[in-house]
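As described in the Methods, two query proteins were run sequentially through the folding procedure within a single session, without resetting any intermediate state between them. The first query and its resulting structure tokens are shown here.
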Amino acid sequence: MPKVLTTRIPWLVPALAGALLAPARAQPVLTPETLFEQVSPSVWVVRTQDSAGKPLALGSAVVIGPGRLITNCHVLARAKTVSVARENVSYGATLEFPDAERDLCQLKVANFSAPPVTIAPPDSWRVGARVYAIGNPRGLETTISDGLLSGIRRSEQNSFEALQITVPISSGSSGGGLFDARGRLIGITTFMLRDAQNLNFALPANWIAEVPERAQAALAKRQAQASTAAAPGAAAAAAPTGDRVFEYRLRDRRTGVAQAIVYRLDRVDGDRLVFNQGNRVERTGGAVLENKQPSAGDFDAAMPPGGWVSAPPEPGARWSLRYTNRQLDRTLQLELTARTGETSSFQVAGRELQIVRVGFDGYVQRSATSMPTSGTFKANAWYAPEIGRVVRFDVRSRGGNGLAQFDIDEVVELVDIRSE
């Protein structure tokens, strides 16, 4: 991924606090035709490529300031290069500020003069109001669709979590704009729940102004953790001497059939841990960078980019995930909500580890043949900060129809840690 800048952009705060925010005076309601003509130049296609130049993902982005656009972070997953395009014009883009927890990423584009949108204040949102989404569903550039703002979802602390809408959302719409009838941005379209008619969601637009500060805070936290890990004696605490072989057991809870999954640490390159002759590469803390030989069922096949849990999660944290995994002859598309759960203890190899549970709940589409099937996905990952690894993972996923059905009930558990 492009290097993330850590300096503040002087224009950003006044732009988002002033120029982008809607003025207090009333604005006229626009016809759909006028609204589209007015705001569609601010919505662009996002294309990503891997290191070999092969296409990875297609999404949307909204112009929020001079040379700046906002999109969903999951659109950029595993990307080496990013571009934004509209009609016959294309620009290279770089990631400037990632707020992965909220799935909002800010892009920077040089010599880019598309007009920024106006952001509506949250107190203007009304459940039942007509709203319009402009994006690039299935690659169909600058498509407009309409519906209702059907709900404003809040957390237990009464903070915004998502805008629920009846506007149709499809693949490629991620990162697009959700506008009110006055042409003001109220959200960034992000995901839909499969098998749930007209149940679609957008991220609140007022989060956009917080992206730079939250991204810099997250970066500072990672740098502090890295400094701590690099301090004398810290490496031994993060990866105790002698921990070289991590043996897991994958068990099908329907049949009782089990198999061993062994990760053998070959070498350590800085903060990169190389397992199984380079077929699996992790970072200190458990982030999975490469996995060339997936063998642990849905623990591998459905794993989000970077792993299920790669750092101790904040208590009570909640975040959304939407991503696609392609492995050999099958493709999985997942839309999940993750929540940090309770802490407990775990016994392995004579040790007692403190662990924290993260639950994942949502939907999956599995395409092992030409007939994709959709269904539910529920999983739990128990993470042990002391060794920086998921030590237990269970999944229950079922769906499909007719002859194309799936029913997965698996558990993967760490059963041994040894030096050789």
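Immediately afterward, the second query was submitted; its sequence and tokens are:
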Amino acid sequence: MSGELIALTGATGFIGRHLLTSLTARGYRVRVLLRRPVAVPEGASSAVVGDLSRPMNMAAALAGVDAVVHSAGLAHAMSGTPEDDYRASNLDATRNLAECAARARVRRFVFLSSIRAQSGPGAMGVLRETDPAQPTDAYGRSKLAAEQALAGIDLDWVALRPVLVYGAGVKGNMAALLRLARTPYPLPLAGFGARRSLVSVENLAGAVATALGAPGPLGRAFVVAEPDPLTLPDMIAALRQGLGQAPKLIAVPPGLIGLACRLAGREEAYARLSTNLVAEAEGLTALGWRCEKTTREGLAVFARAEAA
């Protein structure tokens, strides 16, 4: 049992809630840093209310803290969010918190970044941490800028770059895919052959624990991805298996679906369906990170749990 005190941001969000459960199960004490007064999440040992854009009470919040896990931030949207908003939430707040953590002499700062700090929505080859970072949108640029800011602060830091995360309570693209799988109708998606890496929120929590426990200093970014990328038909089949359904997939030329998406104003969604994004978590694996389930198994369990 660790007994170390972890300061956790974003504890009321999708990933943060799972991190709180995972960290306490591993024996850490968790102090949650909240933006506004709300009920303290179950499992937290203490809570501090503050604003990371004006971190006046962060010295008290980080007193006695061994490490920080920063999962709060502005999540990726398909389009329309101003770049300044991403920079304020994902760069400025991260830098402010890290500077406070450095003054408090915390042992390590773990930042939940994103694969979008490294790539656009698709990539020709397999993404690795050693590849040059080439974000293509405001969200990805803000995450990469936060990583670069951490590198300029005197503390031991880790940035985790997860691919698309799935698990109980997920929203956005993964929730939409599950809703699609839940329909009783055949789906015209059998013709999509692009492969994409995913990671369950449980395996992501394991990556955070690996980053906290690894010998240091680290001072680098790590890709977080399960080792078995799937095609869109594979994902639907796995979800429907968890729901007790047959795959029920039929082949329609992807170009026709692309035309329909463009007419409906969903070009970005189609780009995600039709392009590869495969990543390898070589650095984390070298540190001892292991996935408990394959992606197929994890998707089936996720769908079954959501249905229940």
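Residues 5-166+198-224 form a domain with the Rossmann fold fold (CATH 3.40.50.720). We note this only descriptively and draw no conclusion about the first query from it.
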